[in-house]
Design brief:
Length: 358
């Protein structure tokens, strides 16, 4: 069996385990402790913000973009959805049209060369948990891949493990899975009995063998908005869905819920593509997103956890059980190993594409 082994480097997973506790203890801090965002006059200037669309990008527009426009006068144009191949083509062709892009931690780790260095004379990242600060980007949310299900379809016996999701006899029908090597290789291995602490380096051959067993029962999705609709419409009974996307449809009355068992945490970062036409405006925008008020608003809108610990003071009590960083939720899952994917994303993406075609 083939195992791919990551190279050395900073192991952020260990650091984050302790930072979760630190974030919880800082939750009582006043949101006013941010105090670092000083508005500048950017009237008449603009930038293009690209993200993942749907309810997520709408929440970012409310929490980040609109306050930035109000305080600086700059116009923020919405675009997307984020597509890694499109982004790479833009940058390598020297004609990026996006100024700020929302990317996953795995994508950032594997593609650092695509992004500008942050100007920390403009971007005051000091209020953030420093585990979420990168030379090329700053964390904007902490979220998780979860086992989700349509309660009308599965009944009271809900799936509680990835093994359940892969059990087509126990849970008949289609399931929604992410059309991407990560986190599907981790998910397949857990479905095959591998404990989270034993996942890395990933046993790729074993994962694809497990994926073979369910391939004919899957609706693959590339958009989280499309995934939400699959669950809402009852096209799938179970599968993988982000915690915030589940929160969104659940609060709108859809019979969709999740379990925190075996959840996989991840972080989204805001980055500036190399050669971005409005990079200076983008740097100021990045600074504004650090604001605790803005991050609390984002959490309350879509249940994605803040990266600024002071923001927790503004998170509504009803939202806390939906956050991936709430201690009881965090202890049931783990942080995806972005360093592993930094070294293996290209090769495993190629293998994933080949596997999908067979």
């Amino acid at each position: 069996m083939t195992k791919t082994t990551p190279k050395g480097g900073l192991n952020r997973r260990t650091f984050l385990k302790t930072s979760l506790c630190a974030s919880a203890s800082l939750a009582a801090l006043s949101i006013g402790t941010r105090g670092a965002f000083a508005a500048v006059d950017l009237s008449g200037r603009e930038m293009v913000f690209a993200s993942w669309g749907g309810s997520y990008q709408a929440a970012q527009e409310t929490a980040y973009c609109n306050p930035f426009t109000k305080t600086t006068g700059a116009t923020v144009i919405q675009d997307g959805p984020m597509n890694g191949s499109k982004l790479r083509t833009m940058v390598e062709g020297g004609q990026p049209i996006w100024d700020v892009v929302d990317v996953t931690d795995t994508f950032l780790a594997a593609n650092e060369e695509l992004f500008e260095d942050l100007d920390f004379n403009i971007v005051d990242a000091s209020p953030l948990d420093q585990a979420y600060v990168h030379a090329k980007g700053i964390g904007c949310i902490i979220w998780s891949y979860n086992i989700a299900f349509n309660t009308d379809m599965v009944g009271e016996n809900t799936p509680q493990s990835w093994a359940d999701v892969f059990d087509v006899e126990k849970f008949p029908g289609k399931r929604a899975l992410r059309d991407r090597a990560y986190p599907m290789i981790e998910i397949a291995l857990m479905a095959d009995g591998v404990a989270p602490e034993d996942l890395y380096p990933l046993d790729v051959d074993r994962a694809f063998a497990k994926l073979d067993t369910i391939k004919d029962h899957v609706i693959w999705y590339t958009s989280n908005s499309a995934a939400q609709q699959l669950f809402v419409d009852g096209e799938v009974g179970t599968g993988v869905l982000l915690n915030g996307r589940t929160f969104d449809v659940n609060k709108k009355g859809a019979p969709v819920d999740l379990t925190w068992n075996q959840n996989i945490r991840s972080i989204d970062y805001l980055v500036i593509p190399k050669g971005a036409p409005n990079a200076e405006v983008a740097q100021h925008f990045m600074n504004a997103t650090v604001d605790a008020d803005n991050q609390a608003l984002m959490a309350n809108t879509l249940a994605y956890a803040p990266c600024n610990p002071a923001a927790f003071a503004g998170v509504q009590e009803s939202v806390l059980p939906w956050l991936a960083t709430t201690p009881e939720n965090a202890e049931k899952g783990f942080l995806i190993d972005a360093e592993y994917w930094r070294d293996n994303l290209a090769a495993l993406t190629e293998r994933w594409t080949e596997w999908k075609l067979t």
